[in-house]
Amino acid sequence: MHPVTTRALALGIAGALLPLTPALAADAETLERGRYVNIIGGCNDCHTPDYALSEGQTPEARWLTGDVLGWHGPWGTTYAPNLRLKAAAMSVEEWVEMSRTLRTRPPMPWFNLNQMSAEDAAALYHYIRSLGEPGEPAPAALPPGETPPVPYADFVVK
Ligand code: HEC
User: Fold this and answer.
1) For residue 138, which of 64, 88, 87, 75 has the smallest C-alpha distance?
2) Which residues form the signal peptide (predicted)?
């Protein structure tokens, strides 16, 4: 049988048996694009535990689950949130709009994310939704002046 027919048949059967999940709804090309945007956009660097310090060796099973490393500076202490939980609570339209308008405390490069094309943002959303169990939320941010628990990185401008 022609591969495309086989795939359509498989999706048809899956669709009949299961509610259509976002992972099934997005095609393989979209998911691959979202994965690429995540890597090249640097989202793993902060939103994936140990990613930067392990030189990118964190298994994909833990990608974008947020991190307990605190970023401490004049803004208080921030933690890169769990983006699986974030995406799970939003529609693709909401995610694209958020990417265009988001503002946060440092060191999130929201000014770069604001420039992401709607196509790339949507692909990233579908990729995140295709990842497995969302896992736990990252710690809540702390106000300025409060010493965070370890581990944290100190931003001291000299
Ligand atoms: C240098 C580290 C860093 C990088 C790189 C980074 N982030 Fe973040 N991000 C953070 C931190 C820290 C926060 C929390 C900011 C705050 O609490 O004000 C955050 C917040 C966010 C939020 C808001 C989440 C919420 O719950 O409101 C989104 C969405 C987000 N980042 C998406 C991304 C995406 C998409 C990328 C890649 C294109 C990315 N981030 C790259 C550190 C980073």
Assistant:
1) 64
2) 1-25
**Angstrom distance (rounded) from CA 128 to CA 133:** 11
Asked if the structure places residue 115 within a domain, the reply is yes
Kind of pairing, strands 152-154 and 76-78?
Answer: unpaired
Q: Please report the pLDDT score of residue 9 as a whole number.
A: 44
Full residue range of the structural domain in which residue 55 is found: 22-154
- State mean pLDDT over 20-32: 76
Q: Atom 36 of ligand 1 has which residue's CA nearest to it?
A: 43
Q: What mean pLDDT do residues 87-116 have? A: 98
CA of 46 to the centre of ligand 1 (A): 7
Q: Tell me, yes or no, whether 67 lies in a domain.
A: yes
The fraction of the chain above a pLDDT of 90, given in percent, is 82
Q: How far is the CA of 148 from the centre of ligand 1 (A)?
A: 19
What pLDDT sits at residue 101? 98
